[in-house]
Every structure is written in C-alpha cells, then in structure tokens.
TrEMBL record:
Keywords: Electron transport, Heme, Iron, Membrane, Metal-binding, Transmembrane, Transmembrane helix, Transport. Coiled coil: none annotated. Residues 47-184, 210-285 form the Cytochrome c domain. Pfam families: Cytochrome_CBB3, FixO. It comes from the Bacteria. The lineage of its organism: Bacteria, Pseudomonadati, Thermodesulfobacteriota, Desulfuromonadia, Geobacterales. This is Cbb3-type cytochrome c oxidase subunit II. InterPro entries: Cyt_c-like_dom, Cyt_c-like_dom_sf, Cyt_c_oxidase_monohaem-su/FixO, Cytochrome_c550/c551-like. The chain crosses the membrane at residues 7-31.
Length: 287
C-alpha cells in the first residue's frame, strides 16, 4: 500500500499539488494577458481617479462591494454586461472581491451624477433607505497629493504636470467620486444594455385619479431621493412644472437619461407602475 511508503506518497502528493497549481494559477495567464483581449476604450487612471481608488481601498470598500459582474443571468439583469478581463488591465491590485454586503460596483460609473454620490457618501440612507453603509462625511477633508506623481510613475500611467497641479484644492470626497465615475465607464455597455420602450406609448391611467396614491408612493420610494419629496428638485431637477407629453415623461423614467445621470427604472417598476408615476407627476403639474 502506498500509504506505507511515506517518501513515495510525499513525492506523489507534491507532484499532484504542483500540477494543480500550474493548471489553475499559471496557465490561465497565457490567455488572460493575451493582447487580443485588450479593450481599446479602457484608459489608465488619472491622478485624481488613482487617489480615489487608494481611498476606496483604504476605507475597506472592497470588503462589502465586488467589482465584477459574473456571466450569470441574475448578475447581468441587475448590473449590466458581464465583466471582461480587459477591463482590469490597469487595476493593481484588482478589486473583484467575493462578498456583496453592498451591491456590485463594476458598472457604477456614469450611472448617477456627482451630486448623487456626494449625498450618498455623506448620508447613505438619504438615497437608499435600507442601506447599512456607514457615512463618509469625513472625506470632505483636503486630499494628500504628496505621493500622487510617484504613484503615476510607478504604475507607468501617462500624466502631465497640469494633471498633478489640478489636484490642488481637491478633497478626498472629490477623489473617490472621480474614481467611482470611472469604474466600468470605459466600455459602451450602457448603449447595448439600455432598456427600450416597446409597445403603445399611451397612458392607460390618464385622468384616473384612483392611481394617484400608488403613484405618489412609488415616487417617494424611487424618485424623491433626487427630486425631493415635494418635487422641488435637489440632485435632480424641479418636477413641479413638467409641461411635457406623457409619452416623453414615461420614456425618461422607463429608459433613464444617460446624459443627465438618471438611471432607468423600467426593469424595477415595469410599464404599469411607471405609468402610475407619470400620472402622479402630471397631476402635480395640473394642480
């Protein structure tokens, strides 16, 4: 029996571990680092974004948030297109993570405007009522830029003296938000993953006052964080004087407004509930 021959058993066990290591940890790099997998639109971090990334690591954000969308239907429906290896070419170290106490952030860049992130970082529950994320209001302190240029040189990222000079007067909050807006925003996934409006664009609840309470409740749950509970605007614009056709308002809520940093609510609300929100908004305008 082989267990009675410890030397041979030890050699075989060592050989098995070495083969497994080569297969799982060495060979993959032959195709992971293949130049063919590079994504031309993915650019190196700017000095401000890099400082923000370091703050993200310092505060342990990667302990609660992953940064990789798995090729699973549950992931792609919620977060967008699955992650590709070429997206992480400038990440040293990578921040894929393995725990999701908070949502995945691989596609957070460009989803919300800067003002949303500022408010969320200062008071997470003001934007996401059920959030268990701690407040980071203390990041409004000056950014330490003493090592910024050395970091850029060490990572061989391109920069100019003007880029370093532009860091003067910036806060840690500015840096981490610049980093958040960069994550996942170098690939045009939003265009391919955009929620499109299909079917007849006619409000089925027009002048139906019975849906207003539900429309108001949906607005309070999904819209008030940016537009204010009284529709006076804050992060988003004032909605009290929304003199637009129902179909246009519906398209804005359902598909979002990428240029304005407004996310799409079509997948969350569906058509019927979106129309109820539209009906509520238009009723406020009428009165």
């Amino acid at each position: 029996m082989i267990e009675k021959k410890p030397i041979i058993f030890l050699l075989l066990a060592t050989a098995t571990i070495l083969v497994g290591t080569i297969i799982t940890m060495v060979l993959p790099f032959r195709w992971i680092n293949d130049p063919k997998l590079a994504i031309a639109s993915v650019k190196p971090y700017t000095p401000l974004q890099l400082e923000g990334r370091d703050i993200y690591i310092r505060e342990g954000c990667n302990n609660c948030h992953t940064q990789t969308v798995r090729p699973l239907l549950s992931d792609t429906e919620r977060y967008g297109e699955y992650s590709k290896s070429g997206e992480f070419v400038y990440d040293q170290p990578f921040l894929w993570g393995s725990r999701r106490n908070g949502p995945d952030l691989a596609r957070i860049g460009g989803k919300y405007p800067d003002a949303w992130h500022v408010k969320h970082m200062k008071d997470p529950r003001s934007m996401v009522p059920r959030s268990n994320m701690p407040a980071y209001d203390f990041l409004n302190r000056p950014l330490d830029t003493s090592l910024s240029e050395k970091k850029m040189k060490a990572l061989k990222f391109p920069y100019t003296p003007a880029d370093i000079q532009a860091l003067q007067g910036k806060s840690e909050m500015d840096a981490i938000i610049a980093y958040m807006q960069k994550v996942g925003n170098d690939i045009p996934w939003r265009k391919t993953g955009k929620t499109e409006v299909l079917g007849e664009m006619k409000n089925p609840f027009q002048d139906n006052m019975s849906v207003l309470p539900e429309g108001q409740k949906l607005y309070a749950e999904h819209c008030a964080q940016c537009h204010g509970i009284e529709l006076k605007g804050e992060v988003g614009p004032d909605l009290r004087d929304m003199d637009q056709p129902d179909a246009k308002v519906f398209a804005s809520v359902y598909s979002g407004i990428a240029a304005g940093g407004m996310p799409a609510f079509g997948d969350t609300l569906g058509k019927e509930r979106t129309w109820k929100v539209v009906t509520y908004l238009k009723s406020v305008h009428k009165h």
